Amino acid sequence: MRDKLKILFLCTGNSCRSQMAEGWTRHLQGDTLEAYSAGVVAKGLNPNAIKVMQEAGVDITSQQSQTMQQIIDLGIEPDIVVTVCQHAHENCPVFPAKARIVHHGFDDPPLLAENEPDPEIALGHYRRVRDEIKAFAQGLPDNLGT
């Protein structure tokens, strides 16, 4: 039996996009992929990310916001690191030689929603990005060229 491909989703704060990517990948591809997420810093789980993922039937509340260094310290050696924002892509750490870095950026829902007075419109940004990440996760690992 072949080991599961380990994939790490990396973003700035490990609060929203990378958490949704980890959740979708575990939910949709858990039989073939081992998903993790981390950030350049750990900001905690974004409540709106939790909410829109629950709307889609995926519970990410058991996931933890952690830094890339914590992943390294845990001895997790990803096969592929997917940076989901430009800042993380530019600040990606050096992982073991086998890790391949792939960039696939997604819009930042908290940034898009921060000045939106209507909560439903604000959540719309989270829902759109959630659905884009779902589509990306459904195509794994083929859309990474593995």
Principal-axis shape = globular
CATH superfamily: Response regulator
Mean of all residue-level pLDDT scores: 90
Question: How big is the Rg?
Answer: 14 Å
CATH architectural grouping: 3-Layer(aba) Sandwich
Please give a structural write-up.
This protein is an alpha/beta fold and 146 residues long. The chain has a single domain, classed as Rossmann fold (3-Layer(aba) Sandwich), CATH 3.40.50.2300. Helices cover 40% and strands 15% of the residues. The protein is built from six helices and four strands. Strands 2-1-3-4 form a four-stranded parallel sheet. β1, α1 and β2 form a beta-alpha-beta unit. The longest helix is centred in the C-terminal third of the chain and has 20 residues. The radius of gyration is 14 Å and the shape is globular.
Q: What is the topology?
A:
Elements: E1 5-11, H1 17-29, E2 33-39, H2 47-55, H3 68-73, E3 80-83, H4 86-90, E4 100-103, H5 109-113, H6 119-138
Parallel strand pairs: 1-2, 1-3, 3-4
Condensed summary:
This protein has 146 residues and is an alpha/beta fold.
Name a few traits of the molecule.
Rossmann fold; single chain; alpha/beta; globular; 146 residues; four-stranded parallel sheet
